[in-house]
Amino acid sequence: MGTISPTQLDYYEDMWKLESDATLVALVKGEDGRTALVLDRTVFHPQGGGQPADTGFVAVAGSEVKFVVQDVRSKDGVVYHYGMVENCGEGWEAEFEKGKAVVLQVEESRRKLNSRIHSAGHLLDVCVKNVGLGDLKPEKGYHFPQGPYVEYRGIVPQKDVQSKQKELELEANALISRGGKVFVALVPYEEACKLCGECLPDYIPKDSTPRIVKMGTNLGCPCGGTHVSDVSEIISVTVSQIRTKKGFTKVFYNVGP
Predict the structure, then answer these.
(1) How far apart are CA 87 and CA 33, in angstroms?
(2) What is the pLDDT of residues 92-150, one digit of tens each?
(3) 204: closest CA among 182, 188, 218?
(4) Which has the closest alpha carbon to 67: 110, 109, 100, 114?
(5) Alpha-carbon distance 91 to 20, whole Å?
(6) Residue 184 contacts residue 15 (beta carbons within 8 Å)
(7) What is the CA radius of gyration of the chain?
(8) List of residues 6+ apart from 10 with CB closer than 8 A
(9) What is the three-class DSSP state of 114?
(10) Contact at 8 Å (CB) between 224 and 7?
């Protein structure tokens, strides 16, 4: 098999689209022995950027054969949909020949929860500044349902931890109550700089078109994940803990049911 072209990421422009059509590029075996489908395009979000992978299925058009997607990963721009086949006996590989038309379906409840958790993490970045912790600089986020957190460079004095925890939660829920459209777009580098307060990470190439996410009217930041369409869809946030260690601070949180 020759070089595989990068997969077109349909969720980049439409994060709320859960079903789409694609063409099968390859059926491959991963280094770990798992079977994966490679498509020309996908609405499945691969694990990355602190966000879990989507799950769902890929069905062969005009057939009852389904490939249950259990994990999605991206490598060198190519998205691999890992899983197993349903409704097919021996020789099922013939159903997944290169060039076949397939239908993709993302599991809605998982996508929505992951999007709410990810958006809540971004909203906390806004809240950190609003409650007087502007010296904290976002480093990374863990937006999984089990123990999500945002990590910042900088510390919160121990005497302020409890009060700031309460302030962050109150501020986050106030912003959620107020609501605001979530802006997501691929934009030229100069425009991205303006949307992000004239500050982009060094890893963003200056000749690129970064994908920027903004929570309402607040400053944006580069992000490749999925999000809610309005801040109000986060529903609620609980800030469960602030932990400072070795010059870094983790803010642990979760979203309401």
Answers:
(1) 21
(2) 777 889 999 999 999 999 999 999 999 999 999 999 999 999 999 999 999 999 999 99
(3) 188
(4) 100
(5) 26
(6) yes
(7) 20
(8) 17, 20, 41, 42, 43
(9) helix
(10) no
Extract the tokens encoding 117.
């958790």
Q: State pTM to two decimals.
A: 0.93
Matching residue, tokens 């013939």 = 94
Contact 82, 70 (CB under 8 A): yes
Q: How many CB atoms lie within 10 A of CB 23?
A: 13
Give CA separation, 46 vs 50, 114, 171, 179, in Å: 10, 12, 31, 28
pLDDT of residue 87: 65
DSSP state of 83: E
Take residue 16 and report the two structure tokens written for it: 């709320």
**Which among 177, 185, 55 is positioned nearest to 109, based on CA atoms?**
55
Q: Which two tokens stand for residue 80?
A: 């691999």
**What are the tokens at 52?**
């879990």
The tokens for 109 are 């409840």
Pair 154, 136: CB distance under 8 Å: yes
Please check whether residue 212 is in contact with residue 184, taking contact to mean a CB–CB distance below 8 angstroms. yes
Q: Residue 45: name the closest of 6, 84, 18, 25 by CA.
A: 18
Complete DSSP assignment for 225-241: S---SBGGGG--EEEEE
Which amino acid would we find at residue 13?
E
Q: Regarding beta strands 8-9 and 41-42, do their DSSP bridges make them parallel or antiparallel, or are they unpaired? A: parallel
45 and 111 Cβ atoms separated by less than 8 Å: yes
Closest among 108, 55, 111 to 82, alpha carbons compared = 55
